[in-house]
Write a structure and sequence with these properties.
about 230 residues; alpha+beta; 2 domains; two-stranded antiparallel sheet; two-stranded antiparallel ribbon; globular; binds zinc ion
């Protein structure tokens, strides 16, 4: 994995800031794993998520912290998960269901159905894209879609990251999915904006170039920022 420096962060944020989270996730993985450039869109979602988790742990540390609202009482509380539990490992890339082979859905497959408002239609189209055999239309009933979906989830458990919560306020138990690309992109954006703000402040004060400011160590940059504010 390639370590992302400050200039890489800014380039990543700039390239992806107006894109869909699916594309932001692909860009982030490609920035950290340039040897896979051009192929990440065709990785199963679980593989993309494992790569994103690895990147997140290396750059921001292993503790993923966020806020969640209780499904029952709407109380907001903080959660923390260990990003290392999402990184590493491998999964098979296809499943066999009742003698028919399906490859696992990729970012490219999701992008093709992401604007379909009807969830059942989207699920059917997604599985049709992934079917390696010609299946008759009659094979795509809801039960069949559910069976194939469950088999895919069992084979690629990180494709959808399900988190369980017990509300500290009302005790309700509920589950939520963690959208890893969106979660990480918020952090990329925050880091990018913070760096630009520091460049603006230090360039205005000392007349240094952007490259000079970005090449300062974080400790030194923070120190100069404190001096400017003092
Ligand atoms: Zn609650």
């Amino acid at each position: 994995m390639r370590i992302l420096h400050n200039s890489d962060f800014l380039a990543l944020w700039e390239a992806g800031r107006l894109l869909h989270p699916l594309d932001q996730g692909i860009l982030a993985v490609q920035a950290a794993f340039p040897e896979h450039d051009g192929r990440v869109a065709d990785w199963p979602i679980g593989r993309r998520n494992r790569a994103l988790a690895e990147l997140r742990c290396a750059v921001f540390g292993a503790a993923l912290r966020g806020w969640i609202a209780c499904r029952q009482c709407s109380e907001q509380f903080e959660f923390e998960i260990d990003g290392r539990s999402l990184a590493g490992g491998t999964a098979a890339e296809r499943v066999l269901v009742q003698g028919h082979a399906f490859r696992l859905p990729t970012s490219r497959d999701l992008a093709a159905v992401v604007h379909e408002p009807d969830e059942t239609v989207a699920a059917r189209r997604l599985l049709q894209q992934c079917a390696e055999d010609e299946l008759p239309e009659s094979a795509w009933n809801e039960k069949q879609i559910e069976i194939v979906g469950e088999s895919m989830a069992a084979t690629d458990p990180l494709a959808e990251i399900r988190l369980s919560f017990d509300c500290p306020s009302c005790g309700a138990h509920f589950e939520e999915s963690l959208d890893l690309p969106s979660f990480i992109w918020e952090e990329v954006e925050a880091r990018g904006k913070q760096l630009l703000m520091q460049v603006h402040t230090l360039a205005s004060t000392y007349g240094w170039s952007q490259a000079e400011i970005l090449s300062l160590s974080p400790g030194r940059r923070d120190f100069y920022m404190e001096m400017v504010r003092a």
